[in-house]
Structure formats: structure tokens, C-alpha cells
Design a protein that fits this description.
The relative contact order is 0.14. The chain has helices at 45-51, 143-150, 184-195, 207-218, 230-249, 253-259, 268-283; strands at residues 6-7, 12-13, 31-36, 56-60, 107-110, 135-140, 159-161. Helix 5 (230-249) packs antiparallel against helix 7. It is built from 7 helices and 7 strands, in the order βββαβββαβααααα. The chain is 28% helix and 10% strand.
Length: 292
């Protein structure tokens, strides 16, 4: 399959110009485990695996034995090796097909739920190990799916940490969860930046992200609208809300069919109930996501 900048299945860079050096990132903690449940070509967490192969482990929940979808788990043993083809210094970064059992003292989840705190402000009752021994877990999946995965039995017992100040997202992929949501690689880069000495340059974890963004911008006319523009996001959000509204107003089941004579036309009372449900749902405040 076609790919640009890196192969999302074998997690190695491709087509690198001679005058460009691929950054080798060193994370400010022991290891990053990515709970991966999305199409590999769409997921930004693959960037971290390419740029910090000895510290990033993919937990591939997307691969299905009943289908032939292409995912990192189906690529063979290449993910267990570095760019030179040798086994990395940390043998624990081999791709897994399930979420392992974690110790709540040595692993935390980067997830903006109600109980999340800044890592530097974690209470002593958590009894966390030193940062050099800590495993950070991020979830790379659509936001609604991420909320389900956060409740997985091996993750539910772990504490959540969050970003101090989530940056404005430059991600081009659509979501309907409102402002404050960033892609997985943006969240990971921001988290690392908060733990490291401040620098003016972009974090090296954004190496592929920024080049993909520049490529998307180059494909547009000078006056063309980018998918990252607020107006473009709002227009797509409105289309999704329109579809959801139509689905919720549609009567379902044999009772509804009998009420409208089997023709599928919504009665006035059913429409009023659906309208109220849609209004309540659309006015609920969205939860900010840092792990999309």
C-alpha cells in the first residue's frame, strides 16, 4: 500500500531525504504503552513508535483474527527490532494483542477524566515509582471508544493524569467533541514538553505530524479552506449533528410502525419526544479529550 514519510504497519521511516535527519526521541519516563484501536494509517500514535522505538509499545486491539485487515500485529517481527534490524535494548516493547495487567504504582493513564491530576501534583497516597521507572499509557482510538477502553479491567484500577494546558489542536481528522481535544501524538508531545526543560522549537515527537500537516496545506489552493480551520470543523460538525438528529427522530420498533400505519412517518408526539432528547443531548457539555 502507498505510504508517505513512514510505513504505518512496520513502523519505520521511508523516503527520508539525505539532508534530513530523523530525530531520535527520548521520553522523560521509562515507557509509553499505546492502547491502539484504530486504523493504522489514521492513528498518530504510530509516529511515537517510529521516533522512539525502544520506549514505545503498541497494544494492538484493532487486529482481528477473523479478518485480514493490515495492522502492526500482522507485519511479523519487524516491530521488535530497531531501524538497524537489531533487537532494541528494551525487550518489553514488542507489540501485544491484549492489555496487560499493570501495577497502579508504576503505571498511569493519560486521560482527562474527573479524577485526573497533573503528574507533578500526584498525591503521595498513589505511591508512584520515580519517573524513570514509570509507564505512561495512552489510548489511541475514536473518543467514544476511548471512554470504553478506559474502563477496561486492567486500566480501571490505574490513576489518570492530564495535561496542564492542552494546546490548540492542529489535527486534520474530524471529531465532534468540541475544543480542548487533541490527537494522541499532540497529547504525548505536550505531556513530554511539560516534564522537560522548556524549548522554543516544536517537540521532536511532532516530526511526522508537522510534515503531514504541511503536505495537506500544500494540496489546497492559497485561498482554500484547510480541514483544521474552525469553519471547516464547524460545518462538518453541523452535518453530523443533522444526521444524528434525523436518526433519533426516526421511530423504531413495531410499536412505532403501528402508530404511524406502518409507513414510517413520525407522529407529532414521537417527534416532540425525540426533539427533547436531541436538545438535551446536544446541550450537554462535551468532555475534553487529550488522547484522541
Amino acid at each position: 500500500q502507498r505510504a508517505m514519510f513512514y510505513c504505518p504497519f512496520c513502523c519505520v521511516s521511508i523516503g527520508m531525504p539525505e539532508d534530513v535527519t530523523l530525530p531520535q526521541c527520548r521520553l522523560p519516563f521509562r515507557q509509553c504503552d499505546v492502547v491502539f484501536d484504530d486504523a493504522a494509517k489514521k492513528a498518530t500514535s504510530i509516529h511515537a513508535k517510529v521516533l522512539a522505538p525502544s520506549q514505545v509499545r503498541l497494544l494492538d486491539l484493532f487486529t482481528s483474527d477473523s479478518s485480514h485487515n493490515r495492522t502492526p500485529s500482522r507485519h511479523g517481527d519487524s516491530l521488535n527490532k530497531d531501524a538497524e534490524g537489531s533487537v532494541p535494548s528494551n525487550p518489553e516493547v514488542a507489540t501485544l494483542r491484549e492489555i496487560p495487567d499493570y501495577d497502579s504504582k508504576s503505571a498511569v493513564v493519560l486521560f482527562p477524566d474527573e479524577g485526573s491530576v497533573l503528574l507533578d501534583e500526584a498525591p503521595s497516597s498513589w505511591e508512584l515509582v520515580p519517573r524513570s521507572e514509570l509507564t505512561l499509557i495512552v489510548i489511541d482510538s475514536p473518543w467514544r471508544r476511548a471512554q470504553v477502553l478506559r474502563k477496561h479491567e486492567n486500566l480501571a484500577k490505574l490513576h489518570s493524569v492530564r495535561l496542564r494546558a492542552p494546546p490548540p489542536s492542529r489535527f486534520w481528522r474530524y471529531h465532534a467533541e468540541g475544543p480542548g481535544c487533541v490527537s494522541t501524538i499532540e497529547a504525548l508531545a505536550a505531556f513530554c514538553s511539560e516534564l522537560e526543560a522548556p524549548v522554543e522549537e516544536e517537540h521532536p515527537l511532532l516530526f511526522f505530524f508537522l510534515r503531514q500537516l504541511a503536505h495537506i496545506a500544500a494540496q489546497r489552493l492559497p485561498e482554500g479552506e484547510l480541514p483544521t480551520d474552525d469553519s471547516a470543523k464547524e460545518r462538518r460538525s453541523a452535518r453530523v449533528r443533522q444526521k444524528d438528529r434525523a436518526k433519533r427522530m426516526r421511530p423504531m420498533g413495531p410499536t412505532a410502525d403501528a402508530a404511524d400505519g406502518g409507513g414510517g412517518i413520525c407522529t407529532a408526539s414521537a417527534a416532540a419526544v425525540s426533539e427533547a432528547a436531541v436538545s438535551a443531548a446536544t446541550t450537554a457539555a462535551p468532555v475534553s479529550a487529550a488522547a484522541l
